[in-house]
Amino acid sequence: MPAQRGRLAPTLVSNNTRTCRHRIHCLYSDAFAGARERIFLTTPYFVPDLLTQRRLIRAARRGIDVRLLVPSKSDVPITRWAAQAYYDVLMTAGMRIYEYQPRMLHAKTAVIDGDWATVGTANLDYRSFFINYELVLSSGEPGFCSQLEQHFLNDLTESLPITSVNWKRRRWPGRIREAFGWIMRRWL
User: Fold this and answer.
1) Distance between CA atoms of residues 102 and 91, nearest Å
2) Which end of the chain, N or C, is more open, meaning fewer C-beta atoms within 10 Å of its C-beta?
3) Angle (CA) 28 30 31, round 5°
């Protein structure tokens, strides 16, 4: 699929079909593995499974511009803690993480290389990939991809980057919450 991304017509993808119970997971996994230049992700709940983590880390290590936009304020704090438990590993690999400041961010989008994008109900988390019924619109239509990418870049102007230096300075209570969130990640 990644090699032919550029001209794909809009397609609704469900993760609950007769033949596959996790199509959205496969869709994202293939897109991350096939990225050539950039991966821009927006999600309110970033608690990815091991394969998704590996694909993002490999992409960043290949020199792909991988950026993650998450909310600075969450309606489910434990999911934020679980996500933060992995920030150091992601940033060490070269991924850039931003926290959206103005309000709760609930968008769920991905734009790969500016020629493939998706928007829908699926978060980048275990529940969305393997448990919940989710639906995303996936497309290689240039206008759709361009618009989602521009929204992402606009949202970054209202976000603060998480830097390795500042991240290493965080206090111990936060680290304990992150460890707890990480332990609970499969149930979030």
Assistant:
1) 23
2) N
3) 60
Alpha helices in the chain (DSSP H): 23-34, 50-61, 77-84, 87-93, 126-130, 142-156, 164-168, 172-183
Side chain identity at residue 30, one-letter code: D
pTM for this one? Answer: 0.86
**Sign of the CA dihedral running 13, 117, 67, 97:** negative
| pLDDT tens per residue, range 15-29 | 876 666 788 988 999
The tokens for 137 are 């619109």
HSE-CB for 160 with a 13 A CA cutoff: 11
Per-residue pLDDT, averaged over 79-102, amounts to 87
Token digits of residue 34: 């096939």
What is the residue-averaged pLDDT of the chain? 86
Which residues, including other chains, have CB under 8 Å from residue 20's CB and lie 6 or more apart? 26
2: closest CA among 95, 107, 118, 130? 118
